[in-house]
Amino acid sequence: MDAAILVVSAPDGCMPQTREHILLCKQVGVKHIVVFMNKIDIMPDEEMHEIVEMEVRELLDKYEYPGATTPIIKGSALMALTGEMPEIGEQRVLKLLQTMDETIPVVQRPIDRPFLMSVEGTYNIEGRGLVIVGTVEQGRVKPGDDIEIIGYEKDFKKTTVTGVETFKKSLEAGEAGDNIGLLVRGLTRKQISRGMVMCKPGSQKLSQCFEASVYFLTDAEGGRKKGFYTGYRPQIFLRTADVAADIVLPEKVKIGMPGDNMTVKMRVSVPMCIQEGLRFALRESGKTVGHGIITKKLPDDAIAADVGRKARQERSEREEAENQAPQPDAAAAKK
Question: Across the strands, what pairs with 34?
Fold first, then answer.
């Protein structure tokens, strides 16, 4: 995502989901936010608008967005939809679009790099074959190109692109930033899973271990309430993939706590296409518990596959030894 429109209700102000949306923007690397204050037809009081605006700007500042300079457009989506009161309806929506054009810069896409696209989904078209849908991360792809599909297993699947489409329109080529469907030859839906990566043959390698800088959310931010040890295993969201990952804390850190920002080692449960600089989110029990960025790829044998089980066993043995240690009697303690 390049930018986001944060919609805030004028009667309600900043709700818990407003905080979650800004935090999500921070996690996925959204750099630009434009705010639309909605439902001013219900609450026309300008003093209340100023209070809500102050709350929004303070919340943006808290998550390191430029709250003081973030544009806030006030209007009513309902009035724009029904065509009533154009001064707060249609005109404000047009102003929002104009503000987006003026404040959001055109992103320079990495078109010159080898083709890479993460699989979002697959569809079968009778008589034509399999269509793989996703957003091109880098490079270009056109009909006739040979590609590899990697991830989840060590075997690579090779195929040829026979068509490029977007929103029912055929394209001569797909470029970085385009959401497209690729018609491929000789594959079935059972062979392709969400989270796999399509790439230029030989351009990407699979890895399981890496080093990352991770921030673990506090309870107030929607994260964990308790600490965690080496062997903690949340779900990691890499691009469109969703797999389990073992976390190894630094040697001098015995327990990680919510609110910590640290460099950890991680091992994903299956081979994945991992790149330095790739952002990810950590989730557990339906909530986001952390987010980070990959800083260094490690050899696959850098972290044992059973690191979690070994860490739990060592911790259990240490606690058992402490419980069995002789305790001084009360008389000796008093002396």
Answer: 5
